[in-house]
Amino acid sequence: MARSFRVDTIGKLIELNHSLTAHCFDPKCQHSSKLDLMELAWKLGPCHGYGADALEPKLRCTKCGGKRVGIKVDPQFMENLRRGIK
Q1: What is the pTM of this model?
Q2: Is 5 part of a structural domain of the chain?
Q3: Could you give the CA distance from residue 54 to residue 33 in angstroms, rounded to a whole number?
């Protein structure tokens, strides 16, 4: 039977080699940038959640300074399979 687990913290994202990208929703800006997960873990702690309620309110666009920022997880499934992580 397959084991399931939740990927619900910054630490889990780091452990699984996932990345997190922030996107500005301001139509005049639309900037996006990959977040430094190690820096986030250092500032907020590896057990801090990364979901919309936990992380998005803390983010600002680095280009326009706006607070209308969303996040997207970019899983590295193929890389994890090659490394033997399930």
Answers
A1: 0.76
A2: no
A3: 18
